[in-house]
Amino acid sequence: MPSSGQQAPPVISARGLAMQFGGMRAVDGMSFDLSQGEILALIGPNGAGKTTLFNLIAGSLRPSAGQIFLAGTEVTRDPPEARIGKGLARTFQIPKPFAEMTVLENVLTGAQRQAGEGMLANFITPRTVAAEERAAVEKAKALLDFLTLSRLAHEPARVLSGGQRKLLELARVLMADPKVILLDEPAAGVNPALLEFIIARILDLNAQGTTILLIEHNMEMVARLCGRVIVMAEGRRLTEGRPEEVARDPQVIAAYLGVAA
Ligand SMILES: Nc1ncnc2c1ncn2[C@@H]1O[C@H](COP(=O)(O)OP(=O)(O)O)[C@@H](O)[C@H]1O
Ligand SMILES: [Mg+2]
User: Fold this and answer.
1) What angle, rounded to 10 degrees, do the helices at 192-207 and 162-174 form?
2) Whose Cα sits closest to atom 12 in ligand 1?
3) pLDDT tens digit string along 111-145?
4) Taking residues 155-175, what's their average pLDDT?
5) How far apart are CA 40 and CA 238, in angstroms?
6) Strand runs (DSSP E) across 56-141, as ranges?
7) Domains detected in the chain
8) How many CB atoms lie within 10 A of CB 136?
9) From ligand 1's centre to the CA of 52, what distance in Å?
10) Residues 141-155: what's their mean pLDDT?
């Protein structure tokens, strides 16, 4: 375990993470610590390896090398569900809701550890299950309210706009009461009013104690949310600093231009 002195261990610690796809190292030796209560941004040009790094942390990919710790406990070999159980949530860059299920039903898919599921199910009465289900529905409705999707609760998810799908994705992961959320481009393609709304909701969640790791290209959003930014390029850490520092760093500008060229 990474040494942490007397302080609480970082919410997430990555040590030397690497991911090889065939001959290409999408992530090539990434290490970082995410502190309790922090909002940390991960930026970098397309193809830098940001989403792959999220997949390694969430457990949907097994790293070629390196270690991942959640609150000081190694989870490198744990499946995604075990990490969700430890309070980790992640949103997808391109949300794919169940199109024919209602918005409310989609949110309910994010519920964890229902009494009626798993090995103990036979020992739990139908009454307990019904009470849990009612509680889950109430919680899902409250989350739809928090994200202004209530009036769409009973519509099939296919009617949602791209921006509304981003909100539904957030509502879904909040059902599990995460301690830390990995947000993959939560504001990509959303209109300016919705961008403001998403910034406000992220600040609300953080004020309630949720730690956040954010992949985002919008530097205004990054500057308003984050004290610290890690810049990735070609699978590696290019630099790290405050948003206004990295935004004017010539290496960072060159990395973005290199991809555009
Ligand atoms: N499952 C995969 N198989 C092969 N290559 C992949 C896979 N996922 C991502 N890559 C490649 O890894 C690199 C990093 O991708 P990604 O992590 O999506 O970057 P970013 O999110 O920073 O845009 C890209 O070259 C991408 O094509
Ligand atoms: Mg990505």
Assistant:
1) 10
2) 26
3) 875 554 555 556 667 777 788 889 999 999 999 99
4) 96
5) 15
6) 65-70, 73-74, 88-90
7) 12-94+180-260 (3.40.50.300), 98-159 (no CATH)
8) 17
9) 6
10) 98
Q: Which atom of ligand 1 is nearest to the CA of 48?
A: 22
d(CA 141, CA 119): 28
From 175, 233, 249, select the one nearest 42 (Cα to Cα). 233
| Position 17 pLDDT exceeds 80 | yes
Cβ < 6 Å from ligand 1: which residues? Answer: 21, 26, 44, 46-52
Name the more confident of 67 and 4.
Answer: 67
- C-alpha pair distances (Å), 230 with each of 39, 75, 144, 189: 11, 22, 32, 22
pTM of the model as a whole: 0.91
CA atoms within 13 A on the CB side of 121: 7
Measured CA to CA, the distance from residue 155 to residue 195 in angstroms comes to: 23
Give dist(CA 1, CA 101) in Å, integer. Answer: 42
- Identify the pLDDT of residue 120: 57
Six token digits for residue 153: 């609760």
Cα atoms in the 13 Å half-sphere on the side-chain side of 56: 30
CB 230 within 8 A of CB 240: yes
Q: Which residues of 234-255 are buried (b: 16+ CB within 10 A; e: fewer)?
A: bbbbbeebebeebbebeebeeb
- Pocket perturbation via mutation, ligand 1, pick of 46, 50, 52 by most ligand atoms within 8 A of CB: 52
Under a CB-based contact definition with an 8 Å cutoff, are residues 168 and 160 in contact? Answer: yes
Strand 180-184 versus strand 24-34 pairing type: unpaired
